[in-house]
Amino acid sequence: MGNENIFHEKDLSSYHFLVTGGAGFIGSHIAEYLLKNNAGKVRVLDNMLNGFESNLDLLRKYSAFEFIEGDIRNLETCKRACHDIHFVSHQAAMGSVPRSIKEPFNTNDINVGGFVNMLHAAVECQVGNFVYASSSSVYGDETTLPKVESKIGNCLSPYAVSKRADELYADVFSKIYNLRTIGFRYFNIFGPRQDPDGPYAAVIPLFVKGLLQNTPVYINGNGQQTRDFTFVDNAVQINIKAMLTENAAAVNKVYNVAVGENFSINYLFESVRKYLNNSAEANYRASRDGDVQNSLADISLAKQLLGYSPSVKFNEGLHSTIDFFRKAFQI
Questions:
Q1: How far apart (Å, rounded) are the C-alpha atoms in residues 294 and 43?
Q2: What value does the mean pLDDT take over residues 124-143?
Q3: 146: cis peptide before it, omega within 30°?
Q4: Looking at 15, 33, 139, 159, which residue is catalytic?
Q5: Mean pLDDT over all residues of the chain?
Q6: Residue 275 known to be catalytic
Q7: Which domains does the chain have, with CATH numbers?
């Protein structure tokens, strides 16, 4: 991420930030933004389950960086991480709908149990704004488009249940313990440093890797399902704005984080193929359990209360992502 997009006005040098899951995809981008913009301290807590040493290496170049290798399932670790912290960006989680179907217990332990530990630690350490990652998966079987925050359906996976539980716990902690919480329903965040490997890799890095390395690319279902693909800089923007907001009306709410445009999986594949000048065909296979058919976000609430404005649209973000992987794979 470059410094071309600045999402804050305050001098950050007197503030201490904690980013949980900061060795992972979204968390490392948030931590890097803070460090590049002279935050007084940026502490990362990560158990390296989904994190990468290469991401930490990018952050270690800055003197304000601290790292705690630890697990949010341990309350004392959470308290140690929150000590002397002004703002928390909680990104640590066990992602992936298919993974949650295979591992519901772990999903609940990390995403719900770990989340409550972090809320408790934040209250005890008198943290300011506590912002956290929820997911568009909480909309479940609600078919109305675009998705508005006030209208959700029945959850379709353990992952969705865990993220909905987080929203409910955050609401209760805000009311009972006066913790200032702000949640983000992420819509298909993508970008550089997203893991292209492993059984639960996301669709964009999978497509890019497959076409770069001439290995089979698979599309689940007929490819006509749509997603509001959101470049990672947009997720960074809302995390920064929410951590620093002084707008009382903005806190203790949950927001859609997206662009407000959707594209089919088939269109995505064609876009990657065209940019790479590749003629390979995709392989179609059965749909996945727990997947929603169409996804499109109404982002007016985030615009109104947090001043959120997506800085990177789909094609620009996709090209940046492809260029990153092309360099990473040395192709």
A1: 37
A2: 96
A3: yes
A4: 159
A5: 96
A6: no
A7: 16-191+231-260 (3.40.50.720)
